[in-house]
Amino acid sequence: MNKRSPLRVLAALAMLLSVITVAAGPASADPSDQGCVNRNQNQIDKILKCIDADDALEHLAAFQGFADANGGIRASGTPGYDASVDYVAGLLEEAGLAVTRQEFSFDLYTEISSSLSIDGVAVETQTMEYSGSADIADGNVVGVDLDLGLGNNSTSGCEPSDFDGLDFSGPADIAVTQRGACAFATKAINAEAAGAEAVVIFNQGNAEGRFDIIGGTLGGPSVTIPVLDVSYDDGVALSSTAGVVALSADTIVETRTTENVIADLPGKNPDNVVMAGAHLDSVQEGPGIQDNGSGSAAILAVALELANNKKFEPENSLRFAWWGAEESGLIGSFEYFTNTDFGLLEVAPEEIDKIAAYINFDMIASPNWIYGVYDADQSSFEAPVPVPDGSAALEDLFEAYYTIEGVPYEDTQFSGRSDYQVFILLDIPASGLFTGAEGIKTDEQAGIWGGTAGDQYDPCYHLECDTFDNVGVEPLDVNIDAIAYAMFNLAATTESVNGVVGADVKGTTPADIELDGPQGTFIDEDGGGFNLDKLHPTE
In the chain, fewer beta carbons within 10 Å around the N or the C end? Predict the structure, then answer.
């Protein structure tokens, strides 16, 4: 899961592992019972009987095999990712879907190393994505318009005038800025323009969730100086130190080529398209089997189940997307609209209005999971991004499935910090599922969903250990059915989403039940649910 600055982009507009054969093409067809191929999938319960976690686990084993054969990763622009693309596209083509592979270039960022110390004592740090490189042995620390304490309203570094009167004339000046009010890139650009040789951005410290190290991005190459990231407490200490400050950043930005995979299953109505998407790439630190092989494998299994059933004809057209370079900043999903060669905004803007809904699946099988649904109706969280009309109806679809199955579920903030971001910026209704990343499971959540309180939802988030063994099979089994339930309903009608009347849905729909959740709104003392604030912020 990663991040993107919308302004910047829009301005530019284990069992299976032992037997898997690693190849750059399809390994095998979907493993569902062959009896499902000829079954008339005209009811919700029928399709749900024909799909489960085993369907996705075979694909996850294949992804692990591609990583194992290619340096342990499947990051966009690497052979491991290319093999994943060939596999997904090959299976979709074999099933008869209309497949398009969208090639594009992007800036691949790699941190080789980073460090920060005060009087020789190391401070936990990392570079902001797209940081420049340099070494500073004895830095001059300059605090920039800081506003400390709970409830602060920091705007540190957001305006060039914040740097007026500060001395950045030396050869080793480090601007210490505080999170808040504007993009990290803006703070870094202003600091470099003022003459700083490096920037340290620390968390805001104004409320719960804004104290730890940030893990942010500059959204793209915008500065040449190092930009490091520290926690609130370390930032406060750094801003007032009289000690010797040293920092180092060794980073690389290089242009690579990668692809999106788009697959269409035409329906009776070609002008009303329902999309489901997941990013296919991993980070460079590991194979990315949970993040986001889980979402990619799940929608692949659903797409193949629907396509391979020759008696299934959707009322609405269905489109499935596997996005590239998400981990480099949601690039593939934005390219889908903005690329000069194939982007809908550039070559077919009339097609945008045909997209009725987009549902996103990024990390849906965390090993220490909760069941989270994007909070489009803002019943637990005020969204920091636009929420298109119709999104709440999509949220209801997932909550209806959980209610039918008696599965407790939680709101997750409708934050825009995954591939649905560009869709909501274009006013396309969106929703999705999420089972947790580096956030910490509470005692209350463990009481509801089990697992280990005090541990991360995914202890291997963005790490080398995000392997096949890191996948929660139980949430994968539940969520693949939730996806199938939503797609089957939307394949028939999107009337509750965009007013387009379709066909009757056979089975239990959201209109037939009373939603009974969310059950786990514990994180926020004001009643908020599972907060995604920490995930890949741009500001």
Answer: C
| Two structure tokens written together for 538 | 């741009």
Amino acid type, 168: F
**Predicted pLDDT at 20:** 35
Q: List the single range of 23-32, 93-102, 117-126, 475-484 with lowest mean pLDDT.
A: 23-32
Active-site choice (197, 259, 305, 326): 326
User: In this predicted structure, what is the pLDDT of residue 1?
Assistant: 59
pLDDT at residue 34 greater than cutoff 80: no
Report the distance separating Cα 244 and Cα 233, nearest Å.
Answer: 18
Q: Which long-range contacts (CB under 8 A, 24 or more apart) does 138-141 make?
A: 138/172, 138/244, 138/245, 138/246, 139/172, 139/173, 139/174, 139/197, 139/198, 139/245, 139/246, 139/247, 140/170, 140/172, 140/173, 140/174, 141/174, 141/176, 141/238, 141/239, 141/241, 141/245
How high is the pLDDT of residue 220?
Answer: 87
pLDDT at 16: 34
Q: Measured in whole angstroms, how far is the alpha carbon of residue 93 from the centre of its chain?
A: 26
What integer is the mean pLDDT of 73-84? 97
Backbone angles phi, psi at 252, to 5 degrees: -135, 135
Query: 96-101 contacts: CB < 8 A, separation 24 or more?
Result: 96/307, 97/263, 97/264, 97/265, 97/303, 97/307, 97/320, 98/263, 98/264, 98/265, 98/266, 99/261, 99/262, 99/263, 99/264, 100/261, 100/262, 100/263, 100/264, 100/342, 101/259, 101/260, 101/261, 101/262
User: How far does Cα 354 stand from its chain's mean position?
Assistant: 24
Span 232-271, pLDDT tens digits: 999 999 999 999 999 999 999 999 999 999 999 999 999 9
Q: Which pLDDT does position 81 carry in this prediction? A: 98
Of 68, 90, 89, 88, nearest to 80 by C-alpha is 68
| pLDDT single digits (tens) 381-433 | 889 899 999 999 999 999 999 999 999 999 999 988 899 999 999 999 999 99
Residues paired with residue 321 on neighbouring β-strands, in sequence order: 262, 277
Any catalytic annotation for residue 326? yes
Q: What is the pLDDT of residue 532?
A: 47
- pLDDT of 326 reads 95
Q: What is the pLDDT of residue 506?
A: 86
Task: Give the position of tokens 């494998």.
Answer: 297
DSSP E strand stretches across 302-405: 316-323, 355-361, 372-374
The residue among 276, 376, 285 whose CA lies nearest residue 327 is 285
Task: Give the chain's domains with CATH numbers.
Answer: 16-107+255-512 (3.40.630.10), 121-243 (3.50.30.30)
Residue that has been written with the tokens 């999106």 in this structure: 260
CA 58 to chain centre: 22
CA-to-CA distance for 394 and 493, rounded, in angstroms? Answer: 12
- How many Å apart are CA 303 and CA 275, to the nearest integer? 11
